[in-house]
Thymidylate kinase
Amino acid sequence: MSRGAFILLEGCDRTGKSTQAQMLVDRLTQLGHRAILWKFPDRTTGIGHMINGYLAKHQDLNDQAIHLLFSANRWEAVEQLANHLRSGTHLVVDRYAYSGVAFSAAKGLDLEWCKQPDVGLLKPDLTFFLDMPIQASMQRGGFGEERYEKEELQTRVRDLFLKLREPDWKVVDATETIDQIHEKLTKAAQETIQTVASRELQYGLW
Ligand code: Z5A
Ligand code: MG
C-alpha cells in the first residue's frame, strides 16, 4: 500500500497557513485522496490546554517551560501521525517544530538548545514557507490578539525561519491571491504524493 505524504505549512503570523491548509485538504479529498488537517499547537489535549492558556495570556510560564510544552505537544501526536501516514492518509500540517524553534529563539533562547527536544521527530516530505513582509501581514484580520503578535518579535521570527530554512523548502509569496497560492500548493503536493508513495517514513528531524 502507498503511504501518505507529510505536507507542512510554516510561516509567520497571518501569512495564510490555516486558510491554505484547509483548502489543500479539501482539494486533495476532492481529487480522491484521504487527507487530514493537523494543527500545531493541538490545543485539544491536556498539554494543548496549557499552551492555549499561555498564548491567550491567562497563564505565565517561563520561556523554557513553554518551549518544552510545544515540543511535547508534537511528541504526544507522533504515533498517530505515523499511523495515518502508514495507512495511506496524507497529513497537511499547520505549523511544526520550525515554528517551535523560531518563536522561542526570537525570545532569546539559544537556537541549538531550542532544536534539541524535537530531534528525532517525523520529518516532513514537503515544506511550504509562506513568506511576506511583516508590515503587510499585520494588516490582515486578527493580528494583535495573542501573546506573540507584535511587529518586533515577528520580524525576529521571520529572520529565524530563514535561518532554519532547509534546501528543499518551497518558499511561497504569501502576498499573492488565495487562489494563486492554492494552485501552487496543490501542484507541488500532488508531485510529492507520487514521489513518496513507496518510501519509508522519514524520522530524524534536523
Ligand atoms: N508557536 C510556538 O511558539 N511554538 C510552536 O511550537 C508552535 C507555535 C507550533 C499560535 O499559532 C502561536 O503559537 C503562534 C506561534 C506559536 N504565535 N503567534 N503569534 P497558531 O498557528 O494557532 O496561530 P493562528 O491563530 O492560526 O494564526 P496564524 O497561524 O498566524 O495565521 P495563518 O494561519 O497564517 O493565517 P490565516 O488564519 O489563514 O489568515 C489570516 C487572515 O488573512 C485571514 O483573515 C485570511 O482570510 C486572510 N488571508 C489569508 N490568505 C490571504 C491572502 N493570500 N490574501 C489576503 N488575505 C489572506
Ligand atoms: Mg493559523
Remarks:
- DSSP finds nine helices and five strands in the chain.
- The two ends are 28 Å apart (CA to CA).
- The pocket of Z5A (ligand 1) is lined by residues 11, 13-19, 40-41, 55, 70, 95, 99-100, 103, 140-141, 146, 148-149, 177-178, 181 (CB under 6 Å).
- The chain has a mean pLDDT of 96.
